[in-house]
């Protein structure tokens, strides 16, 4: 998942949970058995994802930045586990080297 954001007044009403469930359903229908997302350690979203059954699977620490926590949900295998690894590494590279600091 790339981005999920709800304005403060809409939090705590189940909207985020519904959005994640919709995205997970799309991923299952596409044949994925595992999904990956990340959040910064300075954000409360890490607790939200853990409540939804996501498990921490790694982290990225860049100088001067908060720790980025990677979380997954699902089984270890995928129809094409090499493709999943490539997506994970692309996500890591995108987060580390491609995105400009704003």
Mean pLDDT: 79
- Termini separation comes to 21 Å
Query: Which series of helices and strands comes N to C?
Result: HEHEEH
Oligomer: single chain
How many strand elements? 3
Radius of gyration, whole Å: 14 Å
Q: How would you sum up the global shape? A: globular
Side by side, the strands of the main sheet go 1-3-2
Structural class label: alpha+beta
Q: Count of DSSP helices?
A: 3
pLDDT < 50 runs, ≥5 residues: 90-102
Helix content: 25-40%
Strand content: 15-25%
Largest sheet: 3 strands, antiparallel
Defining key terms:
alpha+beta, 102 residues, 3 strands
Question: Gist?
Answer:
The protein is an alpha+beta fold and 102 residues long.
3D architecture notes:
- With 102 residues, the protein is an alpha+beta fold.
- It is built from 3 helices and 3 strands, in the order αβαββα.
- It has a 3-stranded antiparallel β-sheet, sandwiched between helices.
- The chain is globular.
- Mean pLDDT is 79; it is low at 90-102.
Give me the secondary-structure topology.
Blueprint (H helix, E strand, L loop, with lengths): L14 H15 L4 E7 L4 H7 L3 E6 L7 E7 L6 H18 L4
Antiparallel strand pairs: 1-3, 2-3
